[in-house]
Write a structure and sequence with these properties.
With 339 residues, this protein is mostly helical. Helices cover 69% and strands 1% of the residues. Helix 4 (55-91) crosses helix 5, helix 7 (120-127) packs across helix 9 (144-153) and helix 10 (156-168) crosses helix 13. The chain is flat and about 65 Å long.
């Protein structure tokens, strides 16, 4: 086992220590949403070969991460000069300069910084007459809440077109992004990545759709289904995952459980975190919860694929109940109710 040494940590070791500090549940989400498979392999290998991390080393890594996160936010909010001034007041001139250089060399600053500070209503008037691909590119870089408001305001046919372009967008070269920035707003000062910038994708569309109204979401998904059924199904799968069951109220969970087969519930619970387990147990009778706890205790090895398929069947039940109006999944400021 490797014992991390202060002052000699590699970037990979720092990332591993940060993930250890975050805990398994949160780290899994971070890895899934932000890393490629080869990076995940390197990180998990580093974690598995790392001995116990001393508290002072952990605190140093967390402090460094927080400083970089804070600096990046300053850059996005007000540009380089603004970030440098605030950082100097917080950590001193020398440290501030070091942080700025690290961020710039790593090219972590997202484009369209000034657009993210603009009222979505103004942005809507600003881009509504642009080509759908241009609108999709801009929305992919905005915060989901901003993007959802703009997407909801577009005409239905344009909504579907833009939504599909966001979902199928893979990588955009810096040159293309620069050109769009130049045309839309000459005053933009965001620092672009030197390498290809990954934007869009199904997850980006899902984040946006989670913020729009139910009617907008339904219209977009129906349009996608007519044009590209496989893409529509992929978006639907990611709109609500099994762990999101904790977001439902107790009566809704009880309604869902009445439709779930006991075998599927046991399999799904095998791969659930403690919060999900306790929330489900709480909404079962004592006899039923005791039987389920016993079944989980004596359940032998199961395939991950079987667990995921069981969870997906339960998610499908939840979405069907929502479609029929029996439960409502809260999204975009709507209240969750049970009829």
């Amino acid at each position: 086992m490797l014992q991390p040494q202060p002052g000699k940590l590699t970037g990979l070791q720092k990332a591993a220590i940060l993930l250890i500090a975050l805990g398994s549940d949160l780290s899994a989400k971070v890895l899934k949403q932000n890393f490629y498979d080869e990076d995940i392999e390197r990180l998990t290998y580093t974690i598995s070969n790392m001995d116990r991390v001393k508290p002072e080393i952990r605190d140093t890594v967390l402090d460094e991460f927080n400083q970089l996160r804070m600096a990046r936010q300053y850059l996005i909010q007000g540009g380089l000069k603004y970030a440098r001034e605030l950082l100097e007041k917080t950590v001193g001139q020398r440290k501030a300069e070091e942080i700025i250089k690290r961020l710039m060399s790593a090219a972590k600053i997202l484009p369209f910084a000034s657009l993210r500070k603009t009222d979505p209503r103004h942005l809507m008037n600003f881009i509504r007459d642009e080509h759908p691909q241009t609108i999709a590119l801009v929305l992919a870089y905005l915060e989901p809440e901003q993007a959802s408001m703009i997407l909801s305001s577009l005409p239905p046919e344009l909504q579907r077109d833009v939504a599909k372009r966001i979902a199928t967008m893979d990588r955009t070269t810096p040159e293309v992004v620069q050109e769009v920035e130049r045309v839309l707003e000459r005053k933009l000062s965001a620092i672009l990545q030197e390498d290809q910038t990954q934007v869009g994708g199904v997850n980006t569309l899902v984040n946006i759709l989670n913020m729009v109204t139910r009617s907008t979401e339904k219209a977009i998904l129906e349009g996608l289904e007519a044009e590209d059924p496989m893409l529509a199904e992929e978006v639907r799968k990611r709109m609500f995952v099994f762990e999101d069951i904790v977001k439902l109220d107790d009566l809704s969970i009880q309604r869902v459980l009445r439709e779930v087969q006991s075998k599927d519930l046991a399999l799904a619970m095998r791969g659930a975190n403690e919060e999900v387990r306790e929330r489900i147990f709480r909404n079962m009778s004592k006899r039923a919860s005791d039987m389920l706890r016993e079944e989980l205790q004596y359940m032998g090895p199961v395939r991950l694929r079987d667990v995921e398929e069981a969870q997906q069947r339960i998610v499908k039940i939840i979405r069907n109940l929502e479609e029929s109006g029996e439960i409502v999944i809260s999204r975009g400021g709507e209240d969750a109710v049970l009829i």
